[in-house]
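Researcher: Re-running this chain for the archive, since the previous output was lost when a drive failed. Same request as before.
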Amino acid sequence: MEAQIIDGKKVAADFREQLAGRVEKLRERGIVPGLTAVLIGSDPASASYVRSKKRGAKKLGMNSQVIELPADTSQRKLNDVIDQLNANDAVHGYIIQLPLPSQLNVHESLYRIRPEKDADCFHPENVGLLTLGRPRFMPATPGGIIELLKAYDIQTSGKEVVILGRSDIVGRPLSIMLSQKSAQGNATVTVCHTRTKNWTTHTKNADILVAAVGRPDTVTADMVKPGAVIIDVGMNRIEDPQAKKGYRLVGDVDYQGVSEVAGYITPVPGGVGLMTVSMLLANTVTAAELTVK
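Model: Regenerated structure tokens:
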């Protein structure tokens, strides 16, 4: 058996086509959704990710800008930038690209964002609404995963879901979303982390297995239940002298081995990452729509 590939490129294209219609309706009312990304320092991965967001926004007819700050930016300077974005009516949603340099306080920075403009859904108010089942926005990567499952009619109700990783960006919010009483929830969710003694005892029972740990080849074929759905959130660079850039991107899953056991699998690249950007754009459009309701 060879797993069916969950094509993130196709799902993202279909999702953005629907999103374009919402943008057009806003533009007809004189509102152009505006997304801003604040990039501090010169981390190549962060810069690449921000560029992809800007390109995606422009293709949809949205306004998009990147504010680039030096790596030695002070907390006071970053706070000033955040306050300016909060007050700018042309900016409907914005993000502060993580990770931040060590001199900056992540919580102080994220919590200063106006909740109505929190395109990443990191502010405590938005996390609280999500937890209560009344989300204003969807966390980008978890929301993207939900959309991928929906696109392939993969049911979550009554299923055993195992998530590897408990980060505030992926594992924790996704566990909340999948366990809620909702159309894309009602799953029994287990979260494995660094203190979990034996991951395999849990993963072998998973109907849906989500890998979000940031280590290549963490999930191998012997850890997977035959026919399981495998969602690979990882994006790892490994050296490859034969590659044009000297490296290639791989996920947290041994793709070749696991694809021979699983029923569905997301590739890396071409899977979850494309939907993460799409959900960020969707949150910005939602923020713009909320200004006219």
